[in-house]
Amino acid sequence: MASASAAAAAGPGGSAGASFRRSDLRLLLGVMGAPLAPIPSKLAEPLPLLSIKGAPIESSSAQYILHQYTAASGGYKLLRSVRNAYAMGKVRMVASEFETATRVVKNRGPTGRGAAAVEQGGFVLWQMAPDMWYVELAVGGSKVHAGSNGRLVWRHTPWLGAHAAKGPVRPLRRVLQGLDPLTTAGLFAEARCVGEKKVNGEDCFILKLTADPQTLKLRSEGPAEIIRHVLFGYFSQRTGLIVQIEDSHLTRIQPHAGGDAVYWETTISSALEDYRAVEGIMIAHSGQSAVTLFGFGEAAMSHTKTRMEEAWSIEEVAFNVPGLSVDCFIPPADIRSGSVGEACELPPSQSHGERARAGAAVHPSRVVAVERAHASHHHSANAGAGGRGEKIVWRVEV
Length: 398
Description:
There is one protein chain. By secondary structure, the protein is of the alpha+beta class. It is built from 9 helices and 17 strands. It has helices spanning 2-10, 14-32, 57-73, 76-80, 181-187, 213-219, 352-361, 364-368, 380-386; strands spanning 84-100, 104-106, 119-128, 132-139, 142-149, 153-157, 161-165, 192-199, 202-210, 224-236, 242-253, 262-278, 281-296, 304-319, 336-340, 342-345, 393-396. The strands form 2 sheets. It has a 15-stranded mixed beta sheet that branches. Strands 16-17 form a two-stranded antiparallel sheet. Helix 1 (2-10) crosses helix 2. This is Lipase-like protein. InterPro entries: DUF620 (IPR006873).
């Protein structure tokens, strides 16, 4: 099994290579397709007036930085005048490296031995105040949809169908990547300034935002407990604009049958570049994200680490598009009653030792991205890909 996995990772040829490429694509879309911010954004509330009386220096500094950011992005009045927005862009994704306790497989590029398939595609994003959004991402022949009608966040993948998301209504992380300054400012409204750092030659202030325990509890589901979700924003001292965001969340999975818990830590770091004014609002027109998905348990030899990368560019942006209405954000009629969560399902009959042996032998996406297709699903190709008796079901649907 290990040699077959290594061969599949080393090259895309043959049916095994096609199978692993399909699993890699699921992993890429599952992790980077449509992740959400840690907490809701307080869009409707203007930033409070600056005051140093009775306020911790970390909080008052953060408010000053956000006032500067709002002004640099176009000004609060102009940002509040945006009723809806549209963006269209291109993306390139790749699973670049997989590591276990005993070996490392590096995908060094789109050609040659050890190469990974660089998946290309595009996305469209629609937004409407308050808290409504819809994104469609098509990459490598697969399509992911996600959206919010202001009361419910949902997501649709070819292998899981449509599901509601757990927890409060939260913004799409992709809009924080330089596409929506007002949502970004609202999200960081309760952040603290925790220091300074140079990012790509720019001196930056660092704002830190932590999801509160109640939000984490609402997002937890069954055997999966969200332990923490932290977001850092790096704001340029020169321009006032946000130039990097980095978030990390940790999930604890307790198997139904007992045994050792498994932990998954997902870290996404995004650099935002090429700011240009669109109708007076500063929008980042390109950037890159680096993702690390780290799984570990009680045993030292049981860890896995997968690294992924995404590069994107924005082709079109428009504000206050005529004809866009709330009807455009209605959730799918076939949303399942079960919600989509950061969950890992393990068969009760599988022991910890069997899990450890399987985790060391199989391809990374077999461990962290395989999802069992629902029997009623119409997409036979995806159902076939997800129904070959995989032992571990990992859903990164946040």
